[in-house]
Write a structure and sequence with these properties.
Largest sheet: 7 strands, mixed
Mean pLDDT: 86
Bound molecules: zinc ion
Low-confidence stretches: 1-17, 426-432, 541-549, 583-587
Number of strands: 33
Oligomer: single chain
């Protein structure tokens, strides 16, 4: 209905009433001008109307689009002829408020006394635009970073929708009008499903912001704009890395009736959930592997970016370890066996039964010592002793094992006795050697003699191994004591010389006992204790301690491998679904079965695997996979 067509006028008696005309007898009223739209609180609504005849009062009636009376304003001008009343847009039926876009289009009518009324005039209140803002700046404003700790670690973002109304001239303006804003989200189709740790429409997605009471909470949230034109809610994302959500603010025709027409809609940013974690304890052994270089965020992040996980290297995370016993190669030095851990050894004493000046040469495993008198091992050696007849002749070398005795010449008249000069050895009477060699049975006698029982030596060797393991553990403990909590990593190459494959790891302390075995502290992946000869390299199946304090030695020499080791160990410290099928997030169970994966137990390198539906990348992202 355009201006002019709403004019009501008196018509001749009996003439038909045309559409838009109201027959009022001697008084008629017509709205001659009103804005097509206005923005209450910023603009007012000037209504021009014309009265013919003599009215004694007039009032303005405003109804919403459904016909419900919003305002009845009495006492407006009622002069015969042209009148103007400027309505401020406030209602006075029920709670006073500004009329809203939800009421629109309004129907305005002038009613006079005596009874006459104008044709209704439509006046709109229209949404101009919605602006969605989150106040985020910086390089990656779309990232919703999951908190590193706490029981509720769903990341949140506070969103503000500013709704503008159209002024009468169609430009937008912020008003005080309470406009219902309906918030929804669009979840990416690839998001983690709820049964795998993600969210769905039945999950909490919205929380109220202080001062902005809200309805809904799961699949939607709704609240009206305040006197600054703003609606505010907090969006609660899933805590699964890589999940994406786009936020949408809408104004519905009927707030609360979510199937009603959409008056305006605005999409906000698409958010991406990122996990993050901080690794704070890198220890560098002097001249060891340079963790300071290898553990930089730039070097480590590469493998985590595809899993939407941010690696933070804590402030002051890299520390030098200034323990004099640390060499850069080893976390703990090799402690040589003590006397109580070594096989018995003895000098030899020869006595003839009469005049005898021949020489006797003994071959076997002979102890070697350093300048300080410490035993350094054994070697194949011999000693030649000149007989002194019936006076005992004692050698100076300590034999662990005797292989052969050779007498310089045959003399059938003499019987020769050989016995240990440093024995017998307590508890090992079986091996007290006291042999009488008769001439005529040959001048060279092969032997296979030791001074101590094999089982007793095995016990001693095990005591030596155990003591060295305690040394490794105390080195670990001293490093742990420098950290308050969390994982830590040590930039050496090997735990201990006995684990340095490719280095000189052989010893000769127990060379006379080729059949004894010691048990290494570590086990293979099935839990079986590993055994070896004590002089051989000691077996080690894994180099980590199964606890939050993980000590790792960077095996091998190639820097590329050290980089993989650091990434692998750092990945263990992230909050992830276990990479392996075992329980817990540490130790041997936390490894991927796929060999070409960073999280493979042996030689983990490269990237997190993506093959199959339960691959490591998704586990890193937090998917709860079988
Ligand atoms: Zn591992
Ligand atoms: Zn994997």
């Amino acid at each position: 209905m355009g201006n002019g067509s709403g004019v009501a006028r008196s018509t001749p008696e009996g003439a038909p009433t045309r559409p838009g005309e109201v027959r009022v007898g001697v008084v008629t009223v017509a709205i001659t001008r009103a804005p097509a739209r206005f923005a209450p609180s910023v603009e007012s609504c000037e209504v021009q109307y014309r009265i013919t005849g003599t009215a004694t009062a007039a009032q303005l009636e405003v109804r919403d689009r459904g016909g419900t009376l919003l305002a009845r304003i009495a006492g407006i001008p009622f002069a015969t002829g042209a009148n103007t009343y400027t309505w401020d847009g406030r209602t006075n039926q029920g709670t006073a408020r500004f009329a809203t876009p939800h009421d629109s289009a309004l129907a305005l009518k002038i009613v006079t006394t005596p009874a006459a009324e104008s044709a209704p005039r439509a006046v709109a209140i229209e949404v101009h635009s919605i602006e969605v803002a989150d106040g985020r700046t910086g390089d990656n404003p779309e990232r919703m970073l999951r908190p590193e700790s706490g029981s509720d670690r769903d990341p949140r973002v506070e969103l503000t929708a500013t709704v503008k109304l159209k002024r009468s001239n169609n430009t937008g303006v912020v008003t005080q009008v309470a406009i219902g804003v309906d918030w929804v989200y669009e979840a990416d189709a690839a998001n983690c499903p709820r049964n795998k740790g993600g969210k769905d429409d039945t999950s909490r997605h919205f929380e109220a912001v202080s001062g902005f009471a809200m309805t809904g909470g799961n699949s939607y949230a709704a609240n009206p704009t305040n006197t600054s034109g703003q609606s505010r809610v907090k969006f609660v994302a899933s805590e699964v890395a890589g999940d994406k959500f786009r936020l949408v603010a809408r104004v519905l025709q009927t707030p609360g009736t979510r199937t009603s027409a959409v008056l305006a809609t605005q999409r906000g940013r698409t958010y991406e959930v990122w996990r993050q974690f901080t690794y704070s304890n890198f220890f560098q052994i002097p001249s060891g592997v340079s963790l300071a270089t290898i553990s930089t965020e730039a070097n480590v992040q590469t493998v985590f970016t595809p899993a939407f996980t941010k690696f933070n290297r804590g402030a002051g995370a890299v520390r030098d370890v200034t323990n004099a016993s640390l060499t850069g190669e080893y976390l703990a030095p090799l402690a040589a066996p003590r006397a109580s851990e070594l096989p018995a050894a003895s000098r030899l004493k020869f006595t003839s039964d009469g005049e005898d000046t021949r020489t006797v040469t003994v071959r076997g495993k002979v102890r070697s010592t350093n300048a300080g008198g410490e035993v350094t091992g054994t070697s194949d050696d011999s000693e030649t002793i000149t007989l002194r007849g019936t006076t005992p002749a004692t050698g100076t070398k300590y034999f662990q094992k005797l292989d052969r005795v050779t007498v310089s010449a045959s003399n059938p008249a003499r019987a020769l006795n050989m016995e240990p000069a440093d024995g017998p050895h307590a508890g090992n009477a079986d091996h007290v050697m006291n042999i009488t060699m008769f001439l005529g049975r040959g001048t060279s006698v092969p032997l296979d003699l030791v001074f101590e029982d094999e089982s007793a030596v095995q016990t001693k060797a095990q005591a030596w191994v155990d003591r060295n393991w305690r040394g490794i553990n105390s080195a670990v403990d001293s490093l742990r004591s420098a950290t308050s909590s969390g994982y830590c990593m040590v930039g050496g190459r090997y735990l201990h010389p006995k684990h340095a494959s490719g280095r000189t790891t052989r010893t000769t302390f127990y060379a006379g006992y080729s059949n004894i075995t010691i048990t290494a502290v570590s086990t293979d992946s099935s839990g079986t204790l590993l055994t070896a000869h004590p002089d051989a390299p000691w077996p080690v199946a894994f180099l980590g301690w199964a606890s939050r304090n993980l000590i790792i030695i960077l095996q091998g020499g190639a820097s590329g491998q050290a980089q993989d080791v650091v990434r692998h160990e750092v990945a263990h410290a992230s909050d992830h679904h276990p990479f392996g099928t075992g329980s817990g997030s540490s130790g041997a169970s936390d490894h991927c079965a796929q060999t070409r994966c960073l999280m493979a137990q042996i030689e983990g390198r490269g990237q997190l695997c993506t093959t199959g539906t339960d691959h490591s990348r998704k586990r890193m992202m937090g998917w709860q996979l079988p």
